[in-house]
Amino acid sequence: MASESISVTTSDDQTIQLSRKHAQMSQTINSMLEDSVGADQEAIPLPNVSSEVLKKVIDWCTHHENDPAPVEKVKKLNKKREYKAKNSTISDEWDKNFVNAELRVIVDILLAANYLDVKGLFELMCKHIANELKGKTPDQIRERFGIQDDLTEEDKAAMRKAWGATKNDS
Amino acid sequence: MDVSQGNQHNSHNGFNLLSVELIVHILENLHPFDLCACRDTSFAWRSIVDSVMKWKCLPFTHSSLGIVPPADLEKLVYYNKNALLCDNNDDSSHTFQGFLFGMINEQIEEEHAVSPWVHTLTALSTDDPNEVVTSKLRQQCIEHLRKAEELNPKNIMAWMNHGYFSVTWGDYASAKRAFKTALEKFTRNEAEVSYYYNVAYTYYRLNNDNAALEYFKKSLELYHLPFKSNNMAPTIEFSAAYFQRRSQVMPPDDHTNRPVLSLLQTIISSLPKTSASSSKSVEGRSDRNNHKSVAIDIRTCRFLNEFSRERKTPKSLFSSSISLARCFNHIATSLQFLDKNDEAFEFYSKALSENYDLPNVHYGLAWLYNSNKNVNKARYHFEMAIELNPSHIHALTKLGWVHAEAGNEDTARQYFAKSLELDPNYAPAQNGMADTFVYDIALLADNMRARESIGQLMLLLEKYPKYSNGYILLGTLYFTELEEFTNALTAFKKAMELAPNKKLCYEVAKCHYVLGNYEEAKRELEEELRLIEECITSHVICHVNTNGSLKESHKRQLTRVHILMGDVHQKLGEYEKAMEHYNKAQNNSKHKTVYYGLATLHAKMENFSMSHRYFEESIQGVEFSESDLMVWAASRRRNWQDNERAIQLFHRVMSISPLHIQVHREWAEMISSEISRMKREGYEYSNSKRTVSELEEMRREHVETSEKIRTDLIGELSQVLISIGKKEEGTGWLERSNRIEQTNNFYIPRVITQWFTSE
């Protein structure tokens, strides 16, 4: 019989125990478990995730462990709702507190969620970053995300002509 | 490509680690305007955003003048903007975008509210007043249309949209230019009527009446109705019909109807001459036809005159006509049609003072008195009409009705018989005659002797085959008393054939529904909805809807149709559509049956917390349906006569809504599904934060409540009926009660039907 907890080794060589239920919320770990039946005692290596970030991921999984599986949600969404699903509003209060972190941490969690294939967490992080981009002028976006302005004046003028003015110009 | 190309110097936040794929996922959450801001940040971002936009591009590139549902406008603008970003030289995309901006603007002006999304769309802060937003939307609309015109000068839709929106916003000069260009660019052999009409209208608005009339004439000629001063009736009829057609798609206001009115006034100026010449031989057959034409003209004129609220003195229009009494009569009839009874009285009086010997004037006046419940005067004028014209079949029949309503059935039958002598197939007379016999038949049915009453009704229908009300009664008896739904359907269909009526669509649909023919039910309900909409439109046009009563009746009709439509869609598994109809029903009324429908629908969609909420609402109900039941019970009063105790008890019993039984049963079933799902998924708590044992307890309570109400309601009612000697009826209820017990399929058609049909 499979044990109730799983060991994983993070990029900073820490071994962390997590419940099987939480581990199975990650499609990546789930596939590894399926591929290594009978070798439960071995720690699964996660070279792209630090222990700090993994703890955050486990926190999120703990809070959302009773959520219906995302696959089921997608199956039920009709066309109209699918469009609404792209709405970036974060309604869960706990999630709102969870994303209240430095951009560096957010990006790390996003990368970890992507690597571990935790769909709900990945969507949450994408939504949060999108919210950070919303309503900002190009200058504000550059400032917030540290993007270098490498467009020439000619480029900008051409874009304005082709696509019309953006909020920055109004 | 990597996003880090654009942010080499700023790696402190780790953003440069994100791959293009991840950036794309993030950008999918943004609206186009925010995407544009991202695009303008750097070279790398521009490439990514452009690729996202191309990837999301959907083929919304056609132009269309169809009415777009408001909820879809946002989506369409979003997709179409992406299409434009892929190909900014596509004139049809620009046309469509212009059209969409115009429609959004109309929506805002109608609702007087701006959504935050529109602020984003127009790139304005939320502090800006609505006017600024709408002016920005108008500007964007016209800019896109101009761009489309520039790219493809033969794009007629762009010109037409340009004209249409310019008219809406009062820029008639631009509208005229656009409409004229559309007309010139029209390459088919023969331009459509509306192209000339539009130009005419803009000329009219620009006070160039001569040019306006010239284009009006052309539009009328295209309708194959030559514009000749001595044959005005069809011209005006067409104008009225055309105007009505326009009114169905455009809000009825002075703007849209003034030009037609203007044309009519020009035409009417020649009317007195026509009337005078025709009146020389008043009794001649051909002259009667002419009078009929004149009558049509006058009625149409008066109708439109009322509509535009431009009162004209009829005498000034028809001063030289010697058949002024007839003119007054027709005007009075039109006014009566518009429910303007005071004015109608005035014109009938004028008509009588001109000529007291016109039977139709007496007939019209009698009708008016009758509708005002002045039975004596109504009777006098009907008798006058018959005296002046003993073959006046309408007056004979109507007088029969007056007597029947007053309880003088023998006299009524005499008048109906006279009508039927003149025309044995005259349906109103057959209806009237048969109705005098039907009371006793209905009484039999009320005493649970439905079979017997149906037998007698069949005999009556054999004798009076055009008795449409009889077929309705037959259908109702089959449906509610005997639950023979196929027979009910046949009867309702026959009634529909004899006298088409939107309410019958509902009855037919109801039969189809209980028979499980959901597609047919859907078709009938769609037809009823169409007829109701048409009815509402015509009432709006006529300005009849002043006291609110019609509005209420339409609301009631719409509610019950939407509820049944929701049920039908639910049965067909079309949950989205069902939801749409329930929501529409909810907009018109807070009737508890709507909540019940929503509750069962949410249960099927496994949306249990919402289902709980609606079940609660359906039990509590905002507008408790007791009043509906009281109406029904009161209608039975005559049959219960002096048995006050029975009436009181009946009222008390009926105050417990039978729907509650069904609600509690369905609620219990929903909880069962919720529990199975929790067990299947291994959840400890349901969405409504309850444990399995709590839900089990709830389920048991609902089953018990349902059973208790069933026993109280039907059991007690049966006992009462039996105790006062109505054994058959009492036994009937008990049988139904047992049937519910056996089939677990709640259905008390008598009560439920009355809920839906009581108006």
From TrEMBL, chain A:
Keyword check for Hydrolase: no
MF-aspect GO terms: cullin family protein binding; F-box domain binding; identical protein binding; kinase activity; WD40-repeat domain binding
Keywords: Hydroxylation, Kinase, Transferase, Ubl conjugation pathway
Any one cellular-component term (Gene Ontology): cytoplasmic SCF ubiquitin ligase complex
InterPro entries in alphabetical order: SKP1, SKP1-like, SKP1-like_dim_sf, SKP1/BTB/POZ_sf, Skp1_comp_dimer, Skp1_comp_POZ
GO biological process: protein ubiquitination; ubiquitin-dependent protein catabolic process
Domain SKP1 component POZ: 5-66
UniProt domain SKP1 component dimerisation: residue ranges: 119-161
Keyword Transferase: yes
Biological or metabolic pathway of the protein: Protein modification; protein ubiquitination
PANTHER family: SKP1
Family: Belongs to the SKP1 family.
Assembly description: Multiprotein complex (SCF) with cullin and F-box-containing protein. Capable of undergoing aggregation.
Stated name of the protein: S-phase kinase-associated protein 1
Protein source organism: Planoprotostelium fungivorum
TrEMBL record, chain B:
Gene3D superfamilies noted in UniProt: 1.20.1280.50, Tetratricopeptide repeat domain (1.25.40.10)
Residue ranges of TPR repeats: 193-226, 359-392, 393-426, 559-592
F-box domain segment(s): 18-58
Keyword annotations from UniProtKB, A to Z: TPR repeat
Keyword Cytoplasm among record annotations: no
Pfam families: F-box, TPR_8
PANTHER family the record matches: CELL DIVISION CYCLE 16,23,27, CELL DIVISION CYCLE PROTEIN 27 HOMOLOG
Family: Belongs to the APC3/CDC27 family.
Protein name: SLEI family protein
Protein source organism: Planoprotostelium fungivorum
Organism lineage string: Eukaryota, Amoebozoa, Evosea, Variosea, Cavosteliida
